[in-house]
């Protein structure tokens, strides 16, 4: 996938988030303060504004621009955290002209490491990490496959992680005070991760 295709893929992901704002709002209303949907929508509108019509030198630069747009427009915990995933993940692609499954595995691993370092959450804490971590593991497993096959399996893994977050007790962020009341609800950030990765897989499948 070249830099223009990466850009088109990320624009599709941005639009997917915007279209699902009500779902994300409901998820954060159950466990947090209800602003995640509108925050993500605002971030993705900034991503669309920054990416569409612009020319980038490399896949790294496209992912980086997406991260910067989210960081500077969203606020809240998740603006900095999602921005970190895309910026730090993108840096793992430095020097590469195209994105393949091995590069995507590097992107996911670097993004996961950076967001865990920045936010302090680990798998099982009922955060976006619970979708990103299984997705990164799957991406590494399928690093030698064609990118569309890898991305489809990565999206499946992220959705399974999102679903598994329903049964987790929150220990980070606003939801941590809810205790057992949080059971049965998926984490909002994990919902966003699953939507983004599914849209990326859908683009690659075309
Ligand atoms: P805020 O918590 O400021 O209202 P959002 O509602 O936009 O921000 O985002 C909430 C999401 O951020 C949570 O659903 C969770 O996935 C994620 N999150 C919160 N804190 C952390 C953390 N320390 N590490 C990883 N993800 C986190
Ligand atoms: Mg919130």
Domains, number: 1
Q: Considering DSSP H and I runs of 4 or more, what fraction of the residues is helical?
A: 55-70%
Q: Average pLDDT value?
A: 97
| Outline | globular
Radius of gyration: 16 Å
Distance between the termini: 12 Å
CATH architecture: Alpha Horseshoe
Low-confidence stretches: none
Q: How does the major sheet shape up?
A: none
Total number of helices: 9
Kindly provide the name of the CATH class.
Mainly Alpha
Q: How are helices and strands ordered from N to C?
A: HHHHHHHHH
CATH superfamily: DhaL domain
**What ligands are attached or bound here?**
adenosine-5'-diphosphate, magnesium ion
> How does the helix and strand content classify structurally?
mainly alpha
Number of strands: 0
Q: Note the beta-strand portion.
A: under 5%
Could you tell me the CATH topology label: Serine Threonine Protein Phosphatase 5, Tetratricopeptide repeat
Q: What do you see in this structure?
A:
By secondary structure, the chain is mainly alpha-helical. The chain has one domain (3-205): Serine Threonine Protein Phosphatase 5, Tetratricopeptide repeat (Alpha Horseshoe). Helix content is 70%, strand content 0%. The protein has nine helices and no strands. It has helices spanning 3-19, 21-31, 36-51, 59-74, 76-91, 101-119, 129-141, 147-164, 188-205. Helix 1 packs antiparallel against helix 3 (36-51) and helix 1 crosses helix 9. It is globular and about 45 Å long. The termini are close together. The model has no long low-confidence stretch (mean pLDDT 97). Bound molecules: adenosine-5'-diphosphate and magnesium ion (MG). Adenosine-5'-diphosphate (ADP) binds at residues 28, 32-33, 35-36, 39, 76-78, 81, 119-121, 127-129, 172-174, 187-190.
């Amino acid at each position: 996938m070249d830099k223009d295709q990466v850009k088109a893929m990320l624009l599709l992901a941005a639009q997917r988030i915007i279209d699902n704002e009500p779902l994300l709002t409901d998820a954060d209303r159950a466990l947090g303060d209800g602003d995640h949907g509108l925050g993500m929508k605002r971030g993705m509108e900034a991503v669309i504004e920054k990416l569409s019509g612009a020319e980038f030198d490399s896949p790294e630069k496209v992912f980086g621009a997406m991260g910067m747009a989210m960081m500077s427009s969203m606020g809240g915990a998740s603006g900095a955290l999602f921005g970190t995933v895309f910026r730090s993940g993108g840096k793992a692609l430095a020097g590469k002209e195209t994105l393949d499954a091995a590069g995507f595995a590097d992107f996911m691993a670097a993004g996961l490491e950076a967001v865990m370092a920045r936010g302090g959450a680990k798998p099982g804490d009922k955060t976006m990490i619970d979708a990103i971590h299984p997705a990164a593991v799957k991406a590494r497993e399928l690093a030698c496959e064609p990118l569309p096959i890898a991305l489809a399996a990565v999206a499946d893994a992220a959705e399974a992680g999102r679903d598994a977050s329903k049964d987790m007790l929150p220990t980070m962020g606003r939801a941590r005070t809810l205790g057992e009341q949080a059971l049965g609800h998926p984490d909002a950030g994990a919902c966003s991760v699953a939507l983004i990765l599914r849209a990326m897989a859908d683009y690659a499948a075309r």
